[in-house]
Amino acid sequence: MSIPIKIAGVSFQVPEAVVTNDDLTKIIDTSDEWIRTRTGIERRHVLSGNETAVDMGIKAAQKAIKQSKINVEDIDYIIAAASVETHAYPSTACEIQAAVGAMNAACFDITAACSGLIYGMGIARALIKSETAKTVLIVATDAVSRCLDWSDRTTCVLFGDGAGAMMLTVSDDEQDDILAVSLKAEGNLGDYIKMPIPGKNCPLVEPNEQEPMFVKMNGKEVYKYVVTKLPIYIEECVEKSGLKMEEIDYLVPHQANMRIIEALEERLKFNPENVISNIKDYANTSAASIPIALTEAIQSGKIKLPATAILTGFGAGMTVGTTVVRLREGIA
Ligand code: ACO
Question: Which domain, by its residues, includes 216?
Fold first, then answer.
């Protein structure tokens, strides 16, 4: 018999500092009106001082541990989805492990950009179903503000910082909370969103300049790709789940652009009331965007539990990840 999995807790953490669209007009040629109408974004949280993605991840992890009432010693794996690593090594997952004291956990990071949480769920599900693990903590944390060219108005207005976490464990009843997962990648479209890692050759081989580490994006191509392909991938995943689209209560999409979210809503014929969006307050927080949107919607009562939901993300790679889940009471 397939081992049923429980989503035991979800959480999020964002930094305190807030930058509004109006604030951005002080450093680039933009306007609140342009940003709001093209993206839906009004403000974003950004790291300050010595705060890092790891710090946000630790706080999100601690909240998910508390919420799920799991003993830290019982966590078998910590998977961190972090597109913008604090250190190349140690991994973000190892740094979070040390801080939360989950010393029985194996730890590693994955890079799937904004699809990171869903990729993490796919891996965690396989680990639990194969009896390799009983409990897996996924932490999605990204500090994109540290990797933006703040003079490039085409990218810097779009992103914010944040972290989210999800605890998965073997279900103590028959209910399986993860009904289907679908992970896709199209590496041939890798040029759409890129962040080069700075590095240079040995000066004895050739003199060279160090390239800055900035996000570069072809927004138009990303937009076209997502509105064309994502609905098809979502429909495939829903079919795999055994549910019908009408039986799914909520759609929780990656928060990259309000116009993309509305296009999805229309194409999938989802009631706008049941499509979760908080892009206006957080902008695109990369891998953290889905757990932030999910947790906040549960805590505010916008998502009423128990419920079924589609979680879906896309990002650099290009990667796409979708899952159909059951959400129990008390997870946030
Ligand atoms: N303020 C004012 N004007 C701007 C700004 C700005 N911040 N940015 C661009 N413009 C200008 C452009 O220079 C251009 O001017 P021009 O016509 O004189 O050349 C004009 O606005 C239109 O620019 P477009 O790029 O055509 O604007 P578009 O409507 O395509 O919107 C956007 C751009 C918001 C980036 C959109 O393409 C988008 O959201 N794409 C998807 C992005 C996305 O989902 N990314 C996922 C990333 S996830 C990850 O993995 C990191």
Answer: 178-327
